[in-house]
Amino acid sequence: MKLFYSTLIAGLALSVLTFSSHAGEIILGASMAKTGPYSTTARTSETAIDIAVEEINSSGGINGMKIKLIKFDTGGDPKQAQLAVKRFAQDDKALAVIGPFSSGEARVSFPAGERLGIVQIPNASSGPKLADKFSYAYRLTLGEWPQFMRLVSSMKRKNLKHDTARIVYVSDEFISKIVGTVVMPKIFGIQKVKLIGEAVSFPTAAFDIAPQISKIMQNPPQNVGVAGIVEATVKAVKELRRQGYKGRIIGSGISADPDLAGKLGKEGDGTLYASWFWKDRDARSKSFTSKFNAMNKKRGIVKANPHHVDASAYDIVYLLKQVMEKAGITGEASKLKAERTAIRDTLKTYKFSGVTGDVCFNKNGDAQLPTYIMEIVNSDVRMIDSHPSAKCS
């Protein structure tokens, strides 16, 4: 567990002195998985958050107060995510929390946040119905169900082969297992895609997955659905191609990393995945992408473009800014409990427009977001279809 504090204040000393006349500050916690199993994808969430905080602080802050951002690296460990929200709520007196990152972490930290009365908004958690039982839990993400449902619908709409499929998933990672054993099989059934054989699985640390993949190659389907984060997806795709698989690979939202194309190379051609962010969507998306890439380069981080979880991290900071302004948040210690609750209550009906698109939250605390169907071609990605956000209920 790594705990580290960062007060991000933009501008020169003169601007700092100018702001010192304002009472208080807006304290936000950021629960991040910079190390651990999700680090390849999660490490750049910090970049996105830092950009948003710097922009907000340099343009007047929130209700005249600058954001003080306190960071906690959970390492992707649910127990550390629970510890993080306790530290933010009890020790740091934060008004709200950006994060935690994953579904496994959210499953443990959401109950703790509910008891403490503090809002948490993950930027990556996409497991089904994790926020619905907790009034202080919101997610600026899109569930794996709508993402994969829309992907298969797009395959039909684009007349791509979709008669048969088989599934391979990571057996020891929370969301990968749910996608591989629940989401994909049910959606294939609804969409009339015939499953050829049972799903095959492998653990994250597996070095040789040839025996599992050989089962698929006994009767190759038109498509193989891979449920796993980037490293696992790369491992599965490369082994499928090594054994001569010629069909299409289709991934879920957890595979939606812009780095996937480069890591797969020619072996990835034709691979499809769903994303709730498209870098060329509009001027704001393009501007964010440019700043994101520039800051990563400055920090020595190699990343193709923003992942959709990076876009969500950026949007969460701006969402909290707007919600706090609407709720009249003061940051005064004597009002901490009431203002945390005011943030929760304002989020319920708030409509927000960000780099991810037009956002609102449904009755389960989940954001409604658009979906972009991406195809890997020549070590790059292109958008082949899109779906609008669903209406909030």
Radius of gyration equals: 21 Å
Report the mean per-residue pLDDT as an integer: 92
Instruction: Look at the structure and give the CATH class of the largest domain.
Output: Alpha Beta
Gross morphology is elongated
Helical segment count: 13
The largest sheet has its strands arranged as: 1-3-2-4-5
Beta-strand percent range: 15-25%
* Whole-number tally of structural domains: 2
CATH architecture of the largest domain: 3-Layer(aba) Sandwich
Q: Output the CATH topology of the largest domain.
A: Rossmann fold
What percent of the residues sit in helical stretches (DSSP H or I)?
A: 40-55%
Describe the 3D structure.
Strand 6, helix 7 (174-190) and strand 7 (194-195) form a beta-alpha-beta unit. The protein has helices spanning 13-19, 39-42, 45-58, 78-91, 103-116, 144-157, 174-190, 210-217, 230-242, 259-264, 283-298, 308-327, 336-349; strands at residues 2-6, 26-32, 67-73, 96-98, 119-121, 164-170, 194-195, 200-202, 223-227, 248-251, 272-275, 352-354, 357-359, 371-377, 380-387. The protein is elongated and about 65 Å long. The protein is an alpha/beta fold and 393 residues long. The strands form four sheets. It has a five-stranded mixed sheet, with helices on both faces. Helix 3 (45-58) packs parallel to helix 12. It has two domains: 2-142 and 280-361, Rossmann fold; 144-275 and 372-387, Response regulator (Rossmann fold).
